[in-house]
Amino acid sequence: MATKVDKKNAIRQGITEAEIVYCQNLAGKTFLYVCGDEYFEVSFPIDHFLHLTGVETRLSTKDFYKNAKKSILTNNQFYFDARHVYANAKRKLPCLKRLPELTNEMVCVLKNMETMTITYKLSVTNLKFTSGLTENIDNNGNKINDFFYQKWNEINRGYGMRNECTRSI
């Protein structure tokens, strides 16, 4: 049975591996999704990487990303709490590593995806995993652009949704 240290080491390793994928394929980029007559943008700023990992830290979002990028993130630099539980980080990290699939393959856009806690106006899925999108707003409440990736869900759960297929460009 894995100890708490073993589990935290695995999460740290997953964060470092996910950062490589994020840096090479997504960091600082914005993707345009076109669906019929509608379109929206999804951005991937480096300061949102922390949120996508599912852990909490006392570091700034940029320092967390920088430490993951340099592979110097330590187990003491992140933690789990009531809002950032181990199980969520364990579930999010494999999806984070696969996130480029939702930017370079055919995907379905889901409207009004309902989870236990929130209804996402838009979500994107490749039928293997789904990501809910929220508006990308700065600290002053100003809209930066349409959306950024917010939440991961396994596709085999039943959600009330309307979907249409599209490809990001």
Q: What can you tell me about this protein's structure?
A:
α1 (4-25) runs parallel beside α4. This protein is an alpha+beta fold and 169 residues long. A 7-stranded mixed beta barrel has the order 1-2-6-5-4-3-7. It starts with a helix and ends with a strand. It has 5 helices and 7 strands. Mean pLDDT is 82; it is low at 149-169.
Overall SS class: alpha+beta
What is the strand content?
25-35%
How many beta strands in the DSSP annotation?
Answer: 7
N-to-C series of helices and strands: HEEHHHHEEEEE
**Number of discrete helical segments:** 5
Quote the distance from N terminus to C terminus: 45 Å
How would you summarize what this structure contains?
With 169 residues, the protein is an alpha+beta fold. 31% of the residues lie in helices and 33% in strands.
Keywords:
single chain, seven-stranded mixed barrel, 31% helix, disordered C terminus
SSE layout and pairing:
Layout: H1 4-25, E1 30-35, E2 38-43, H2 49-53, H3 61-69, H4 86-98, H5 101-104, E3 106-114, E4 119-125, E5 129-137, E6 143-154, E7 162-168
Parallel strand pairs: 2-6
Antiparallel strand pairs: 1-2, 1-7, 3-4, 3-7, 4-5, 5-6
